[in-house]
Structure formats: C-alpha cells, structure tokens
Amino acid sequence: MKFPEHGFQLSNTRFAAVKVVLCNDYFETFRNNHSENLTAVPRQIHPRERSPGTREVGRIVIDDRVLCQRQIDGGDATHCLQRHMVYGSRSEGEWGRIGQVVKTNSKKKQKKQKMEQKNWNLLDESLGLHINDDAKPWPLCGRFVLVEDCVDTSAAFVLHHILKRSFSSHPSSAVLFLAFSHPFSHYDRVLRKLGCNLTAQRDNGRFFFLPMLMFQCPGEGKPNHDGLASVFEQIERVITVLHQDKKSISIIIDDISFLEVAANGSSDDVLNLLHYCHTLTSEYGCALIALDHKDIYLNGDRTAVILEMEYRADILVKAEPLATGLAKDVHGQVDLYHSALQISLAFKTWIATRFSLMVLNKETQHQHGNTAIKSYNFHFKIKENGIECFYPGTKIQ
Amino acid sequence: MATSRARVSSFSRNVSTVTSQNPGLKHGPNGTMLISSGIPDLDKILGGGFPLGSLVMVMEDEEAPHHMLLLRNFMSQGLVQKQPLLYASAYRDPKRFLGTLPSPASSKADKSSDLSHLTLTYILGGQQDYCNDFDLRKPLDRHFFSGSNVDCVCFKDSPNLSALQDRCAEFLAKLSRNEGNISSAGRIAIQSLCSPQCKYSNDEWHMLSFIRSLKSMTQSSSAVVVVTFPPSLLSPSCALRLQHMADTLLSVRAIPDEDKELTKLLTGYQDMIGLINIHKAARLNTQVPVILEATTFSIKLQKRRFLVLECLNQAPVDGSSGSSYSTSGGCSGSSKVGSLDF
C-alpha cells in the first residue's frame, strides 16, 4: 500500500500532533509507521464532493499544528494549517491529492499502476525507489546507501534488490559492481532468478563488473599506487565514460570487510577509497551502495571505518535476525532511516534498541526549511524471485 | 558456477541424485555439485553435503580435539573415493596423520544389527558409495593414501603462508572448473590454521588474506576446502571476519563429563561426546538462506565406532507441569535424526 506521505511529503518529525480523518483500517497501518499521537476520525464523502473522474471514497485531513508553529518561528507562515488528502477505494488503498486519485477513464493505466504497486515492496518504499518517474533521475542518485548485516543474517539480498531495481526502473541507468566476495556467475544466477539478466546488461554496456576476488594490495612499505589507487582509477575511468552518456550510475561494493582484507587491514586506504567514491556521488550524481558487516566492529576494534561510513551514509539499512531466533517464514528484520545528520543519530539509537533489522535513511532533502527523517522497520522473507517485506505481525500465511 | 553460461534458462534443476560418472558427486540445488562430508548425518543436515567450490570453516574447541573427527572423516571419504587430497597442518610430519584416518565399515552385515544405521544408509540416496560409514577404531588401508593423489604440507616452520598458498593454488589449478562436466572433485583439509606455534600467527591480516585468496581460488574450482581454526586464540574481530568468509560454518564443543543439570535436561547425555553447531550452511548461487530445523546436534559414537549426530532431546522431567527449559528450547526438531533411539 502506498502511504499518504508521498502525496504530502510528510515525515516523522512533523507528526507530533496530527489529526487524520481516515478509516480505521488505514489508520492502524498509518499510525504504526509514523507516530502514536494521531487521532482518527472516519469520514465518508458525499458523491457531490468527489472530483470528477476519480474513484475517491474518503478523505483525510491532516492538521499539522506543530509544523505550522515551527514554520512561524522560522518566519514562514504561509503554509496551510490543514492538508486534505483523498483516498481511493478501500480494497486498493490508493492515495493522492484531491482530484488526482486514480483516474477511472484509463483502465490500462489503472492496471499498470496496480501492477507497479504490486511490484513494490516496503524496501522499495523505504529506499524511495517506488517513485517510478522516467523524467526524474534514479532516486538514489547522489546518495550513499550503507547496508549492514551480521553472521546470522546476510544482507546481500538488499544489494541484489537494488541492482535489479536499478536496471528495471530506469532505462538510462548503469551499474558499476566491485565484487570482492563472489564471482560473476554467482550474481548472474541470483539476479537471473530475480528476473534480470546480468550477462545481457553487461553486453549492453549497462553493467560493469570489476572482479576483485584475487585483488590484493602489495605488502607494507611499498608505494600503494598499485593498490587501491589503481582500483579508484578503474572506477573513475568507467564513471567518466558513462557520465558522458548521461547515465545515472550506481557504484555497488560487495563488501567493505573484504576490501579491508585486500588492503592488508589499512583502514586509512579503505577510507580514502570510499571517500573518493563518495565524492563521485556529488560530482557525477552517482549512487554509492556498500555492504559491510557490523558485528565485526562491535567489540571496539578498528571502528574507524564503520563509524565514518555510518556518518557519511544517507540511507542506513540494517539487517539483523529476529530476536526470537531463526524462523522459516520470517528471515529477519530491516530498519531503514532517511534523515538529516544530527537528528538521525538520536533516531539511530532509538531504533537500535527497539528492533533487530533496520534501514536508516538519512534524507538530507530540505522540505519547507526543515530536514526530514524517515525511518522504517519491517520483517522480511527472502525468496528466490524476490523478497517479501511486511510489518511485524502483519504477515498473512 | 561456470556451468551457468551453458544453461540459459533461469530455472535450475533440483535433482538430488548421484551422478552416473562419479559416485562421489551428487547434484545439489542451484546447479551446484555436492560431495560428502564423510559423516552421513552431517550430509543429511546440510542437505546433501558440501557444495564444490565452497569453503567450510570449523571453529575448534581449544579443550578438545573434536574438530579432528570431522576432518578425519572428511579426508577418509575423499581417499576412499580416490579424490585428490591436500592436507596441511602444523604437525611436523603430516603424513603420519594419514595413518590415523578411519576406515569405511567393512560390510553391511557388520551393521545389520543396528536398525538406525541401516535406515540412514538407505535414506541417503540409494548408492552407498556417496557416503560411507567410517569405523573410527579401524585405521584406513595404506593403499588408499600411498598413491600420488595425496599431498601433505607442514606449515609449522614457514615464515608465512605464501608457500601453502602456492601449494593450494597448484592443487586447485588441476581441478579448475571448465564448462560443463565436472569429472572429479578435490579436497583440501587445513588443520588449526591459526595455531600459535606458527610464526605468522601474530599477523592476522596475513591469515585473513590467505583465507580470502583461498576462497576465491576455490570458487572457480571443483574442490571443497575445510579449514579448522581456534577462534579463542584470535582477536574477536578477526574470528568474525573468518566466520563471514566461510560458506559453511560449523563449530564443535566438548561437553563436561559430569554436569548434573545437563544430565537431567537431555536424554542420552552420557553417550554424548560433544556438540556440533551449524551456524551457516552454504548457499552458492542463491540469495535464500538455509534455515535448519535445529542448529545444535550432539556428537555420539555408536558402538564406539561410528560417528553419529543427533538432535538434542529434552529429557522427561519428573512431575513437570509444562515448565520449559530455555537451554533445550531451540532444538525441538527432534524427529529427524534421533527418532529411532526411542
């Protein structure tokens, strides 16, 4: 289900006092994802109120007093006190601004929309990938996504998912993949089951695979130009060529802990490489997606890499096993945050104590002068042909 | 892995039969080929055996040599099937270790008195040759390991692991996987990689990069590498890095002889010699994790000869009214292996 904040660009920070006019079913899911202090008032709308050509069946009013006060303090009082939002038929759960919801005149479009909705899952939504607009750039452009996992729960599926989405959603996207942990055949097989042919994409010049399995920096004392510097040169060469073709590029690193081993444990070299890759996100608008294993650093040994990565990350995805142990139908939990730096740190600790799988998406988008945080927590089950995401307790067998 | 090019369809065959060319190989899920671990029960738990191209790490218990049980059976199984073997250890004379390997149980009649063994052998896919039962009290015939397909390396005195790495590379180069058919499989067994008597044992990054390159070489070959290491002698982060590198991760633990609480809790506690934990099962060519019904199994010796793994069973508690014990709660999937004990 698509949530109303996409129409309104509302976020957690601004939900301190919100009145939502909404059917109870929707309200529950809505509240679970946002804030506890929402109040729901169900309201049916009169057919005469309905915008022509839509299948609107109800209306939400979001009364955002706190937001308003803040904005008055900031000198910006022009924003409305009340935001109106309509929702479509209950079975489909579509949302939009008044007059925008589900035009009934085009059945094909409707079907397409429905199909697309089905294809999204919570992970897409939390990463912002569901906004499928060809005119806009790839939603992760200029972002750094850090994916963290542990021995019990591998988060490689997040990389596979992003890889698949980057090819399926945008015709002009390209991916540069630094593989330190698996050979090409592994990814090819995994992605093929997800419905994406990497060999074909490689031949089309959209997938660049840098096999780093055997890459090893020369020993200490030698100039490290043969080491990670040469890796970056390779990356930059590919990026500059792709940039001329006006492609939106994603750099995916699988994974940082192997990169550290390849660099003989030199955290500085690893951080330098990651820093340079990060500069590419601003210079060329690339997306940087990296996987690392959080548990390695938990005992306080060589934490520089993970701390700096977490600080730089725009979106933090954490995968952990369920606290209750391994299960066949739920493989783990994800927490995700989009947030601005300072607020996100507080948020991170809050989520870390509450959930086991987390995606933190630090969104530095400035909306109405405020920076926004979004956080998501959900369970997942990994399948061969995709992943199934659901809110805790809502899995339907 | 390399066969993926040949096969264009995204559907993978899910057949689990022994191939006709080589009795030591079996088709596994996702286009992998499996070889036996040498312990029928472990094969069954892991879904058939170790996939070729995978790295198996065994975390040792520093107080007991239980990892040697796994290693011996793994090596014997390969030798019986005439698969090439590379054995590396910190022993001064690794060749002598081969004399301690167990021999396959001589005949069926030997075991026919024991029902559970028979069923296990038959369940495991018709052909006995894929996985043998090994008699731990009978040493392996010399002719199995006197051939040219066995190579032994001692890494005790070498200043670093590059010599061992070269030997492994040489060994794996012969087994490199080409398109299509895999005719033979190789086994590499490395015992106590990080043992403190080795000169390089302070250089954890060196060991990590050795394992990493070993893993990469293995991935493109038709071999399985089993490495045992003592995690308690390494820094925690290094041990965790090694665990992340493993495709299949096992740990063994000894159990104290006289633990009255455990004796009450678990049936057959007296017969157990240790516990084995399956932390990770290999998942090559797929993103779906393998979730086992139980992850902790007891290691027992049946008739003091055969190594068997059984689920932990909670002992009936006198006058209990549904009170549960957290220590044995995670091991409820008991019907699979140990059911015939009752």
Automatic annotation (TrEMBL), chain A:
Biological process terms in GO annotation: tRNA wobble uridine modification
Pathway where this protein functions: tRNA modification; 5-methoxycarbonylmethyl-2-thiouridine-tRNA biosynthesis
InterPro entries with a match to the protein in the record: ELP6 (IPR018627), P-loop_NTPase (IPR027417)
A single GO cellular-component term on record: elongator holoenzyme complex
Similarity-based family: Belongs to the ELP6 family.
The protein's name in its UniProt record: Elongator complex protein 6
Organism expressing this protein natively: Vigna mungo
Automatic annotation (TrEMBL), chain B:
Any one annotated GO CC term: cytoplasm
InterPro entries named in the record: Elongator_complex_protein_4, P-loop_NTPase
Chain intervals with Polar residues compositional bias: 1-23
Keyword Nucleus belongs to the record: yes
Keyword Transport: no
Keywords: Cytoplasm, Nucleus, tRNA processing
Gene Ontology BP annotations: tRNA wobble uridine modification
Gene3D superfamilies reported for this sequence: P-loop containing nucleotide triphosphate hydrolases
Cellular location(s): Cytoplasm; Nucleus
SUPFAM superfamilies listed in its UniProt record: P-loop containing nucleoside triphosphate hydrolases
Biased composition (Low complexity): 319-342
Pathway: tRNA modification; 5-methoxycarbonylmethyl-2-thiouridine-tRNA biosynthesis
Name of the protein this chain belongs to: Elongator complex protein 4
Renumbered residue ranges of the record's region Disordered: 1-30, 318-342
